[in-house]
Amino acid sequence: MKILNKSNLVPFLEGLGPEFEVVAPLYEGQDILFGDLGSSPLATDFIGKPRLSPKKYLFPQRERLFTFNVCLESIEIEAHFNETKRVIWGVRPCDLYGLKFLDLVYLKDYIDPYYQARRANTLLLGLNCNETEESCFCSSLGTGPFAKEAFDLIFTDLGDVFLVEMGSKAGKKLIEKQANLFTNATTLEQVQGKLLEEKSKKTFKTSIDLGKIKAKIAAASGNPIWAEEAVKCILCGGCNWVCPTCQCFNVEDIKAGHKTQRVRYWDSCQLGGFTQMAAMNSRATQAERLRQRIYHKFSYNPDKYGGKIGCTGCGRCIDVCPVGIDITDILWRVANE
Amino acid sequence: MKKVLTTCEFCGCGCNFYLGVEGGEIVAVYPSISHPISQGRLCIKGWQGHEYIHSPERLIAPLIKKGNRFREASWNEAYQLIVDKFNQTITRYGNDSIAVLSSAKCTNEENYLMQKFARACLGTNNIDHCARLCHASTLIGLVTTFGSGAMTNSINEIEGADVILIIGSNTTEQHPLIGDRVLRAIRKGAKVIVVDPRQTQVAKLCSLYLMPKPGSDVALLNGMMNIIITEGLEDKEFIAERTEGFEELKKTVASYTPERSAGITGVPKESIIEAARIYAGSKKNIIIYSMGITQHTTGVDNVMSCANLAMLTGNVGKQFTGVDPLRGQNNVQGACDVGALPNVFSGYQAVTDEKIRNKFEKAWGVNLPSQSGLTVVEMLDSALKGKVKAMYIMGENPMVSDPDLNHVEEALKTLDFLVVQDIFLTETASLADVVLPGVSFAEKDGTFTSTERRIQRVRKAIKPLGDSKPDWKIISELSSHIGYPMDYESPREIMDEIARLTPIYGGISYQRLENFGLQWPCPTPDHPGTPYLHKGSFSRGLGKFSPASYKTPAELPDVDYPFILTTGRISFHFHTGTMTRKDWALDREYPKGYAEVNSEDAKELGLRNGQTAKVISRRGEISLPIRSTETIRKGVVFIPFHFAEAAANKLTAANVDPVAKIPEYKVCAVRLEKG
Known about the structure:
The complex is a heterodimer. By secondary structure, chain A is an alpha+beta fold.
């Protein structure tokens, strides 16, 4: 474990500059969003999470996959792999879990070369949460507020200094390259980190009972809650767009002259047109689509990925919903009705 | 990834989001969290509706028609042709032989320039835009009663109301972030009454839903007022201190007994009584209305009746009380504010007022016409009569949006010369002699004014595509070519001119708009803006009760055409679909039009859900699949107007409100046949 003086954070991140593009949470007015270091003031002591996860750097909202040109006797194809070397600092534990989960989807059985290219060139520097927001419930899922894995480095805010833990060789190398900025952490400082974790766990205002949910979810498909909540849905797709684990996409061919671009976009399972390439959305009603979103994360994903839940507990889908559909309310009813 | 904070280009909510830019393309959208309306949320159009910006169908060079085909041309060639034709037209037929349509999609600065161009450069007040087709009746109705024709509240006040009466607004679908506030109010215990011939989403979530016959609103509102007065529930103090004309109102509504009102509207009298009691039972009441009120030949009467009801119970001029017309387009409020109307300069200053005219003549350095100009529908009628010879249309698509399209087509084809400025070769642009390529909101700077009178910045995120140019640039260059120089460095300079000449925008500057804008009236540089109107006194002094008697719609169903057609929008598309139909996600939801028919009617007609039917009116016919549903009143057919190939407006009639000249899109007679 190392110690980095807070005043050395920017020099450290800037020091990565020549080799890496550095992305961090930035203040945009009063909003906190991930962006290029230096383009807006750096946010280091914010509570909760940036409103969007850094998923977009690995799986963008809109991504050109390749361009092709069908000639008389051949097809020219040019793939657009993004191999920008990038460090993302300030990734919250929920989002670290989200990316780890995406790795399961895109790098395990099925390998997505576009995700792979971006992922192989990205280092994740986490930032533990000393305090949580109203909508956070990661502690119920074991994904936070302090991260145990899925990072190259993880930072804990001890006040004037960051306690820095290494999670990978690549992370370790980052420290070694600028070793002069770091000192070794004392036992006291390490204990301080532990205490902060315990303190942070007490700041949660929202929780769910995962064990009970897992036991009851299969029987909840007929619960009236799906229809009761779905009637409010205005089909904005927000819950999907902000979710760190939502992975569904659509591809479109955009033809301009002789060349055609194949572009992929985030898609939303809440829309009627979702999976229309397979004739239709097999979930005809909004209630079924809402149920699908919850079941996918809490039932189908764990079945497929060795018990891993497809939810990070970040609560962004609660914050983004214009009509107040709250995943924790739904899960409570799933567990208790 | 570069991030650019800007204002949404779709509806009047005025949400703000960041556009993420990479390699000169928009690759991401994320809502602003601290913005007072968005609060980190958007609707589907905000999240995923901007794909049209990079569409290969975008116009990237001026086009000149030769024979039946367009060829690309240089800007100078296009300008020169327009200059020659406009000059010839004016010389031969006079200034008023040219008419201009401005655009509620464009910025305030562009609309201001367009009306300046019409008035100062072409010398005509023949300028109008699609506000005529949506809220012309609001302007007149609310100016008559209150003295100002805009939403009286701020959007965030809706959440604090105890009672919300939604009449003729499909709020959650058409103004999703305002719908959000309604649902929040419901969660806090507010009672919501919805009046609509279609049981919309918000009608399924409200406390009381009334399903009236289309076009019977005055009878319903008079009926409610009758009950309020009979039961002594009116706010006597407010009436005495803040209003005039109460006795006339009392006299008029006296005959609208619950029985009579129920008879006309088809709503059970118990529901009307309940609605009246709920509405009169609270002191924090908001009325939300939209096109269901305005798009009638009695549009002005409908609007005034809403205002009467609010004044009767003292529900206007205080926080959480008011009358809220929801404006449909991103900048329809602003386009009106800056004078893209035939009778007023910017800030609703009458062209017929000599003092006002002198002010503008001095500022603009020309003599200005003193007679009000033509409205949208009148322009097309005048074209058919040979009085209007040339038109310049910016960012509007009357070939899909205006009533009675066959008539529109005939009128546009009659013109000697038509210039269309747009980002796509729309149905209207296809008829043009010259097409000028403007740009999308992402390629220019400017401001939009939202439905809550909030003037907000639009910021350039990417360069104009190809040879296209920002619309303000095109207007100023064209004007300079014609001989009235307009020399603006940037939209900021145009806003400074607007502020100098427009009292309600007097305190507006780009610098002051940085923090999510200001709400007009904002007369001076130190004025904080106005969250809600008519505090203390109405804009006109006393509020004026303006009673209206029920009049039937212009075209009623009969034996040959037994159904009422009512038209509107759906949440995934916008207006004539030129933008949204080019977005894969939005198009995928609704790739084509449909007719919503009551399931009993469908059964009687022998039509199955999804089966194609012919819908026929006296003016035209279209074929489209039907959606049979219980959520529409029996005898009523609903068709969204977005779809050019099954254009609802081939069926609608150009019957207009006698004062506001707004067409009656919400009622005409049709019959259905198996397709």
